[in-house]
């Protein structure tokens, strides 16, 4: 026994030393801040501290509660313009690394669910690849956000660049602001944003593209009608040149020249050239064969209507025979349509005339003759024509129609005369006179031209539109035409021109249509081999409409051997003039409008059953270099966003099952590490390394997820998840690691509970199993070392033990009761205990003792009561008060069997009486009848009667309730003389057993005193002569 106590004491001492050493571990001082992870744009820095052991001799690892690292932001100044994005740099670091045997150029991709994992897209493949489990510290979780990734976790960063700060930029770009710049929700709310560029203004050649802007709501991020931004200055839509493809040569048509004549049929000419527009804007004149046919007309007939012409008749005789008179003639304009004769060329229709004989008495000195022209005689009346006349020019035949208008001077014209020639260039004339109508004369008279408004003077001469004088034109030899080919034998012929024989001027070939024919000579020219040359085709269409495309053309070095059949010999480029003309050139180098871009679908997220497939979806704008550039998503229409995730269905998965091991694990000694499986209730010591397993069937273990107290576990340096899905915890502590751990395999869950033992817990568990730890059993029937099982902890075969505790007290002190004891199936070692379900021992062939038995107890009793009676009138206890009564009995629990009162607890017996008010309880004195005269036969004889205090109505004894009432008389004298018989009776009456031995026996019945033993003895005869009073 002493050795047992000694061993137990040693074990306790060891446990206390272990626990005290663990409890004394503490953190050291924080280190200085580490170097910032970035030089600009916001990086991360950290401080580290070490966990120090209180006992330097201990070999166990130090354990401290709390975090070993703490972080902060640094270098938050923005990077210079044009700096490469940090995530882009990390992806580009893999450009020189082989991936699946190939080399790719990598572009960044941000996954919305796992923003701190490095996903990249290989150029040309467009599928998402995970290149690293986490990005470098300081990488933004998403574009245009302050949140950053630190140690694989996305940390919230406020606009003040502090971790876990709630401050954000308001719509006024103020950190932590309240949108105070917004006026009633409108001022500052709307703004212009660039949404891309317009299409190229031309379908070929150089065009213009302009930046387009739309109105955007800052609150919702949506594009709204542009009229909401009318009050804001719209950015100037600067333009850029664009080039879709080389335009083919086209006919350049110049304007028509004036018609050669104004009437009578002439010709109008225009120039039509086959032109090719070069990239620098210069135009090159090509041969007509390069442009599509037919060639637009270069000549057309014009002004086919006849020319208006004045025709004048013969002058009439002078209207007088003496003095001054007038002559007239008819002038007619021959015209077609709305083209009339010019009024300034109309001949005069009236003129003054004289007979050279004066008429006495008829002369008028107010007329003054003026001779502006030698052949015209006119009069001036001092009247000038006005600007407002509706008909400033009037034909002489219409003078009488416009008498009112002719009251002021007007130009009057005659009809045109005959042409001066019958062909070629000729002239015709007419008279133009300034005339006025004189009402006194009833006719018009000529006036000086200055009296009429000179700017309206009609022409007096014009060209006649006649056919050319064909006899004056001839064909003239001007040499030979240019050779039709530069090599391989072309032709040239005589070059003829139509010339005027009179002045040698060159005219249209139509003028020589009747000229004498001239012989034309044709001959071969340039009959030499063709040199090698470049055959250059036209540039095709641009490969893209924006974002930098290419256009190609065919460039070949050839030598022409046959022109009609276009037979050529292709030569190497070095045999033609260098440098080689460009075969490709860039085009449409302006930015493209932003559009959604999506990559290839990833493989299904599961190997069986229902999963998801992902693909990158980003808003991109193609740069002039042809590279896609990610831009903010609000630049792309939200309604057109492609789907980035979709379900995938594979073959049915096997049913997922989690193998649980229901058991209890108790650590009683320091261990380097402990392996636990789900289903276990573990009690461990501080500082132990833990490995939590979740055996799964039907899916891969690495896809197991772990939760702690219902929250997802974030891996750290101390807590990690292995590739096999095991959760590893280093240097466990109660503060950080105690709780419920849940492993999730698809929809299946299993728990594992971890608590931490203190010294008393370990001591209690050790004392309970002292006999097993020391190697012997109190009852050999409860354990057998021959029954072994594979220990889940280390997979070694160990003996099973049945641990049986002492019997407990009975569950109750009476009736049916049981007592129990703990019977557990365990593996017991000096480092730990494992408690299994009893079926483990039973399946191993160990007999399981009873853990419960009945107790021999007396039946359980209780006091039974009935309802209270009404307030009794025959049980008064004081003035105005009586009692209520009820039945009280001892019975069995859950039964109506009545038992003796001694079977129940007398101290718990309920009351059977209680006082109550009763107005019928009134005390009164009552007396009996007077007794016979008593005493000796002399004068001192007397009579007595009984006096009792009773309750009115029931006449039962009221005790001392009448003490305050006047008492009636109880004794009086009597004078009855004694007779001889009375004496004889007294002397001779025999002493029998049942006789009355008191003078008051005559009232015992009235007072109901026979129920008392004393009165029944003294008044035996009286009490026995009537019915016995009921018992009390």
UniProtKB/TrEMBL annotation:
List the SMART domains: IGc2, TSP1
Q: What is the lineage of its organism?
A: Eukaryota, Metazoa, Spiralia, Lophotrochozoa, Mollusca
Task: Report the Pfam families cross-referenced here.
Answer: ADAMTS_CR_3, I-set, PLAC, TSP1_ADAMTS, TSP_1
Among its keywords, does the record have Cell inner membrane?
no
Q: Which GO terms describe its biological process?
A: extracellular matrix organization; proteolysis
Tell me where the signal peptide lies. 1-24
Q: Where in the cell is it found?
A: Secreted
Sorted alphabetically, which InterPro entries does this protein's record hold? ADAMTS/ADAMTS-like, ADAMTS_ADAMTS-like, ADAMTS_CR_3, Ig-like_dom, Ig-like_dom_sf, Ig-like_fold, Ig_I-set, Ig_sub2
> Which SUPFAM superfamilies does this UniProt record tie to the protein?
Immunoglobulin, TSP-1 type 1 repeat
Q: State the protein's name.
A: PLAC domain-containing protein
Which residue pairs form cystines in this protein?
A: 36-74, 40-79, 51-64
């Amino acid at each position: 026994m002493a050795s047992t106590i000694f061993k137990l004491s040693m074990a306790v001492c060891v446990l206390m030393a272990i626990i005290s050493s663990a409890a004394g571990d503490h953190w050291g001082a924080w280190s200085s801040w580490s170097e910032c992870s970035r030089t600009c744009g916001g990086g991360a820095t950290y401080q580290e501290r070490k966990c120090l052991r209180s006992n330097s001799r201990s070999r166990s690892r130090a354990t401290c509660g709390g975090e070993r690292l703490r972080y902060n932001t640094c270098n938050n100044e923005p990077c210079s313009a044009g700096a490469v994005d940090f995530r882009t740099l990390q992806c580009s670091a893999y450009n020189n690394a082989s991936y699946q045997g190939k080399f790719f150029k990598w572009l960044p991709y941000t996954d919305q669910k796992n923003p701190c994992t490095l996903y990249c897209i290989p150029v040309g493949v467009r599928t998402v690849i995970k290149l690293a489990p986490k990005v470098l510290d300081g990488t933004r979780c998403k574009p245009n956000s302050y949140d950053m990734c630190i140690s694989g976790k996305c940390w919230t960063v406020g606009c003040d660049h502090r971790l876990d700060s709630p401050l954000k930029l308001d719509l006024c770009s103020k950190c932590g602001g309240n949108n105070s710049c917004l006026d009633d929700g409108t001022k500052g709310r709307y703004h212009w944003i660039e949404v891309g560029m317009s299409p190229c203004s031309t379908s070929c050649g150089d065009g213009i593209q302009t930046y387009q802007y739309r109105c955007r709501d800052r609150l919702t991020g949506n594009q709204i009608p542009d009229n909401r931004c009318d009050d804001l200055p719209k950015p100037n839509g600067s333009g850029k040149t664009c080039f879709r493809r080389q335009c083919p040569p086209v006919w350049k048509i110049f304007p028509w020249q004036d018609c050669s004549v104004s009437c009578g049929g002439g010709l109008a000419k225009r120039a039509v050239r086959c032109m090719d527009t070069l990239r620098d804007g210069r135009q090159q004149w090509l041969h007509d064969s390069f442009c599509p046919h037919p060639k637009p007309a270069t000549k057309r007939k014009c002004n086919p209507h006849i020319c208006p012409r004045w025709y004048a008749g013969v002058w009439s005789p002078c209207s007088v025979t003496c003095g001054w008179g007038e002559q007239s003639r008819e002038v007619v304009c021959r015209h077609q349509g709305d083209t009339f004769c010019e009024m300034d060329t109309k001949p005069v229709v009236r003129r003054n005339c004289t007979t050279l004989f004066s008429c006495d008495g008829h002369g008028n000195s107010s007329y003054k003759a003026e001779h502006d022209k030698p052949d015209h005689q006119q009069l001036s009346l001092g009247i000038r024509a006005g600007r407002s006349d509706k008909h400033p020019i009037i034909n002489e035949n219409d003078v009488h129609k416009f008498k009112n208008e002719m009251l002021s001077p007007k130009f009057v014209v005659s009809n045109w005369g005959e042409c001066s020639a019958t062909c070629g260039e000729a002239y015709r004339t007419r008279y133009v006179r300034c005339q006025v109508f004189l009402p006194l004369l009833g006719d018009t008279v000529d006036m000086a031209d200055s009296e009429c408004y000179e700017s309206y003077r009609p022409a007096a001469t014009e060209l006649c539109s006649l056919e050319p004088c064909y006899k004056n034109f001839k064909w003239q030899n001007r040499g030979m035409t240019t050779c039709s080919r530069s090599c391989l034998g072309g032709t040239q012929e005589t070059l003829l021109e139509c010339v005027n024989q009179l002045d040698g001027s060159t005219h249209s070939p139509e003028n020589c249509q009747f000229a004498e024919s001239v012989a034309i000579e044709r001959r071969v020219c340039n009959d030499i081999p063709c040199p090698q040359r470049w055959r250059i085709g036209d540039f095709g269409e641009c490969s893209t409409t924006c974002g930098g495309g290419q256009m190609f053309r065919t460039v070949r070095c050839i030598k022409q051997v046959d022109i009609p059949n276009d037979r050529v010999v292709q030569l190497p480029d070095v045999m033609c003039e260098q440098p080689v003309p460009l075969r490709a050139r860039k085009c449409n180098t302006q930015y493209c409008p932003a559009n959604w871009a999506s990559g290839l679908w990833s493989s299904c997220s599961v190997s069986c059953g229902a999963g998801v497939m992902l693909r990158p979806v980003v808003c991109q704008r193609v740069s002039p270099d042809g590279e896609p550039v990610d831009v903010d998503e609000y630049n792309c229409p939200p309604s057109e966003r492609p789907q980035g995730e979709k379900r995938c269905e594979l073959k049915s998965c096997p049913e997922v099952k989690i193998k649980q091991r229901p058991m209890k694990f108790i650590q009683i000694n320091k261990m380097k590490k402990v392996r636990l499986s789900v289903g276990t209730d573990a009690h461990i010591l501080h500082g132990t390394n833990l490995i939590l397993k979740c055996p799964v069937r039907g899916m891969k273990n690495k896809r197991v997820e772990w939760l702690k107290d219902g929250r997802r576990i974030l891996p750290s340096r101390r807590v990690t998840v292995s590739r096999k899905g095991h959760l590893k915890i280093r240097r466990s502590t109660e503060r950080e690691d105690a709780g419920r751990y849940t492993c999730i395999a698809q929809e299946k869950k299993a728990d594992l509970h971890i608590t931490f033992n203190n010294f008393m817990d370990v001591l209690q568990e050790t004392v309970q199993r002292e006999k097993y730890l020391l190697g012997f059993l109190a009852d050999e029937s409860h354990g057998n070392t021959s029954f072994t099982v594979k220990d889940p902890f280390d997979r070694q075969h160990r003996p099973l033990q049945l641990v049986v505790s002492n019997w407990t007290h009975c569950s109750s002190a009476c009736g049916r009761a049981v007592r129990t004891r703990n019977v557990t199936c365990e593996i017991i070692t000096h480092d730990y205990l494992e408690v299994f379900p009893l079926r483990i021992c039973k399946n191993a062939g160990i007999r399981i003792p009873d853990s419960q038995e009945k107790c021999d107890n007396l039946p359980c009793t209780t006091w039974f009561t009935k309802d209270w009676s009404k307030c009794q009138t025959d049980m008064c206890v004081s003035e105005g008060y009586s009692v209520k009564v009820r039945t009280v009995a001892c019975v069995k629990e859950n039964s109506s069997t009545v038992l003796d009162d001694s079977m129940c607890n007398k101290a718990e017996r309920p009351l059977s009486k209680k006082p109550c008010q009763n107005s019928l309880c009134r005390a009164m004195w009552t007396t009996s009848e007077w007794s016979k005269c008593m005493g000796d036969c002399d004068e001192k004889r007397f009579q007595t009667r009984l006096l009792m205090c009773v309750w009115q109505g029931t006449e039962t004894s009221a005790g001392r309730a009448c003490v305050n009432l006047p008492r009636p008389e109880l004794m009086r004298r009597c004078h009855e003389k004694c007779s001889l018989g009375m004496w004889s009776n007294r002397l001779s009456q025999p002493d029998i057993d049942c006789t009355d031995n008191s003078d008051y026996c005559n009232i015992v019945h009235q007072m109901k005193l026979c129920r008392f033993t004393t009165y029944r003895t003294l008044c035996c005869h009286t009490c026995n002569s009537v019915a016995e009073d009921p018992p009390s």
